[in-house]
Amino acid sequence: MRNISHITLKRRLFAAALLIAFLFCILIARLFYIQVVDGSALSGKAYGQWTRDLPMKANRGDITDRNGVVLASSYTTYTVYVRPNEMEDVAAVSSAISQVSGEEYARVYARVSKKGVSEVRVVTGLSEAQSFALRGYGYPGLYVVADSARYYEYGNFATQLLGFVNADGDGQSGVEMYYDSLLKGVDGAAYTETDLVGNKLDGTNTTYLAPVDGLTATLTIDFTLQSLAEKAVRDAVDKYSPLSASCLMMDADTGEILAMASAPTYDLNDLPRDDIAYLLQGAKNLPVTDVYEPGSTFKILTAAIGIETGVIADSYYCPGYRMVDGQRIRCWRSIGHGSQDFAHGIMNSCNCVFMDIALAAGTDTMYDNLGAFGLTAKTGIDVSGEGSSIMLARDSVKTVDLARIGFGQAIAVTPIGLASAVCSVLNGGRLMQPYVLSTLTDADGKIVYSNTPTEKGKTVSESTSAAMKEYLYSVVEEGGGKNAYVAGYRIGGKTGTAQKYENGSIAQGKYVSSFIGFTEIDGRTVVCLFKVDEPQGYVYYGSIVAAPYVGQIFAGAFAAAGAEPDYGENETPDKTDMPDLEGLSLAQAAAAVKAAGLQYEYTGEEGRVTTQFPMAGETLSEGSVVFFSLG
Q: What is the CA radius of gyration of the chain?
């Protein structure tokens, strides 16, 4: 055997010592990491392994209107849990729970006797009296804990705007979903030390971690205006049986949403959870999600662009159509409006005038301005599910497309997008960010967040804005918007009637009827967009189907605000009766309507009157717009 030198032995011992030192350092580092760096996390895991917890639900924050009217709140309910490992008499516990809660015994027993779990949730939604009754039995392993449930104070009110929560209290739509993390708070729990199989250890106490309630959300909507909007939408649905109807009200100066109402709808306290299609349809906030061809309401923007860019002509001639790129594009009035100036073109809602304005401005100018109006992007409103405008690509726009865009065809917008743009036309040219949340308040009443008006850009000049307001006032005072007129108050606006398209072709008999109006209430410029999708029957003009409801809403708002009427000379309307037009020719019917002091819209070009609205003999205000059809 070879002898090992003294030097070699020392080297080996030194190497071994270094290795041991290195391993010891690794061990020390690992212990340091476990004890210091990862200590809290591991302690939490350990605590979770030797304890069992029962959740204590935080109360969801209230939702109120701008004046503090509570729209959604939380109330205490009770949930029953059992710990199977602690059960001494499963049948007795199951019987007690079944008798107190009303739940079927077999279902309760199946849950209580479940194996392999530490806790089982058996029944939810018990009252305080029921919770006391169950606690009175004193059964080991039976626990009753406080829970929280949602209640909507007015049921079928602002349904789509508020939204709803699921069985676990998580927001599923509307404000409830958009601000879910702020509304739901932080849940607490009751912790009990147990052994490996989940039995409570003797001599141990239960530790309670109190829940932190959610924040209260104060919205910008006004309870009174929302009530008026809800009623108008219901009235329109009852009268015209449309696919849907909706109403949006905004403060033009701040971007605050004052009301949002849609139908179909349902009671938030009685959700149709067994009909998912209806549940989802009724949850759609149509003023935000809906995309539609706006028709003549869009002419407000075309007119503003025309004034701003200086392309308004001294006069226009309407023979009832325009030939563009070889296509015949009709005005809504087939016999034409003849010669007229710009002001009368707006009052008459003449398609030819707005085709001429768009063509004179050109594609680039129109598209640049529509971008400034915010129509090339979402508004960013703090409500889930906002839709996007649909516009032809700029470089693919043909002359005939531009002509149609001028009067609200070949483009689709959301109601919130259109209303936001129109607000800028009325407020001096400031494109404001629309929003529904005003403030967030904690449990102590301290405001932790406050929303403020935000200007996103400039659209038109002050002079263009002032001129447009006067033109739109004239539409209601003298033009096709007279059915929105309220004696003693100034209301402006624009009607809209758009044909719908299906598979690239016009859908016969299907229209979107709308009216966008504005007025001054309590120092605010309030804009109201009312839309009825596919009204049934022979009446479909926005001036008849939608405009009266905006007048109805504003009349109620004036009364609620205590705004005194200011009657101008000869402003108080005289009353007149609707003449009987059935069987008359166009000329005869027109003469009879004018003799009664009324205005008219009609459909058909030949034959005699077959239908009319309102019916003969109904009392109307002079200047109202009526309808008849020829056939």
A: 34
What is the percent of the chain with per-residue pLDDT over 70, rounded to a whole number? 90
Does residue 240 contact residue 535 with C-beta atoms inside 8 Å? yes
- The residues near 106 (Cβ < 8 Å, ≥ 6 apart) are none
Residues ≥6 apart with Cβ < 8 Å to 549: 232, 233, 235, 236, 247, 515, 530
Using CA atoms in the order 449, 451, 457, 458, what is the torsion angle rounded to 10 degrees? -150
- How far apart are the C-alpha atoms of 233 and 209, rounded to whole Å? 47
Rounded to 5 degrees, what are φ and ψ at 339?
A: -80, 140
pLDDT single digits (tens) 524-558 = 999 999 999 999 988 899 999 999 999 999 999 99
Length of the chain: 631
User: Is residue 48 within a helix (H) or strand (E), and if so which, with residue range?
Assistant: helix 39-50
| pTM across the whole model | 0.81
Q: Is 296 a catalytic residue?
A: yes
Enumerate residues 6+ apart whose C-beta is below 8 A from 559. none
DSSP classification of residue 233: H
List residues bridging with 140 in a β-sheet. Answer: none
Backbone angles phi, psi at 412, to 5 degrees: -130, 135
pLDDT one-digit tens code per residue, 356-400: 999 999 999 999 999 999 999 999 999 989 999 999 999 999 999
Pull the structure tokens for residue 440: 């967030």
SS3 of 90-141: the string is HHHHHHHHHHHHCCCHHHHHHHHCCCCCCCEEEEEEECHHHHHHHHHHCCCC
Report the alpha-carbon angle 204-207-210, nearest 5: 170
Q: Is the pLDDT of residue 469 over 70?
A: yes
Question: Are 489 and 565 contacting, i.e. CB atoms less than 8 angstroms apart?
Answer: yes
Give bridge partners of residue 532 from the DSSP assignment: 245, 513
- Number of neighbouring beta carbons within 10 Å of residue 571: 13
Distance CA 58, CA 54 (A): 13
The answer to whether 421 touches 252, Cβ cutoff 8 Å, is no
Helices (H), 284-414: 286-289, 299-309, 342-348, 351-361, 363-372, 399-406
Closest listed residue to residue 460, CA positions, set 327, 303, 247 = 303
Question: Under the phi-then-psi rule, with left for phi > 0, alpha for psi from -120 to 50, and beta for the rest, what region is 604?
Answer: left
Burial state string for 263-272 with b = 16 or more CB within 10 A and e = fewer than 16: bbbbebeebe
Q: Tens of pLDDT along 554-608? A: 999 998 898 888 877 666 667 888 899 999 988 888 889 888 888 777 777 678 8
DSSP string, 266-283: --TTS--TT-HHHHHHHH
The neighbouring-strand residues paired with 64 are: 70, 218
Find the helix packing angle between 90-101 and 105-112, rounded to 10°. Answer: 140
Q: Would strands 216-219 and 63-64 be described as parallel, antiparallel, or unpaired? A: parallel
Cα–Cα distance, 54 to 191 (Å, whole number): 7
Which one is catalytic: 148, 262, 296, 438? 296
- Collapsing DSSP to helix, strand or coil, 594 comes out as helix
Q: Give the pair of three-digit tokens for residue 429.
A: 């040219």
Report how far Cα 556 is from the mean position of its chain's Cα atoms. 22
